[in-house]
């Protein structure tokens, strides 16, 4: 599976991070998570982190000029030549179009977009549960959770229609045990 270029897509709380951690072991590719990159910058109080903070804390998307430059920079690193698992990007149709530009300038083709699908009720339940366990700031406030769900619906979900005609979109039922979902993804990649 090494050498595959994959986007992991799905609503907040879909389990992208959990599945990504398992998938990178299987695929032997770097995990590129925009959420993790922002949180890392936030923790270290970099300029980028400070800029991203106000958007993240209210469950909005960080502006494209910040996000796209960060992703373009990461994708230009040499380890990406071996394949990658991109998690949390794109999150809007303009970002999807921009990803196409970045990848074509690097002569890289996207192989799969894995969509982990879960219902709104399940998303809400998982995010409030995660708040108790991980204590992530953007999981704590129900209004912020709602805003992330709304942002997903209005800005991110349309990406599915962007990718569907390209025949690289794989829909995965994201309800079940972590192991069951991982098996579904592996099967879809074979
Ligand atoms: P989740 O999948 O639970 O929403 P992430 O860790 O992927 O969490 O992202 C956390 C926050 O980081 C998002 O709510 C958003 O503010 C910001 N973020 C992550 N990826 C992007 C992106 N591609 N574009 C804009 N903002 C992003």
Bound molecules: adenosine-5'-diphosphate
Largest sheet: 5 strands, parallel
CATH superfamily: P-loop containing nucleotide triphosphate hydrolases
Mean pLDDT level: 95
Mass-distribution shape: globular
CATH class: Alpha Beta
Please provide the ordered H/E string of secondary-structure elements: EHEHHHEHEHHHHEH
Helix-residue proportion: 55-70%
Radius of gyration: 16 Å
Low-confidence stretches: none
Number of strands: 5
Domain module tally: 1
User: In CATH terms, what is the fold-level topology?
Assistant: Rossmann fold
Which percent band covers the strand fraction? 5-15%
Major β-sheet strand ordering: 2-3-1-4-5
Give the end-to-end Cα distance, rounded to a whole number of Å. Answer: 8 Å
CATH architecture: 3-Layer(aba) Sandwich
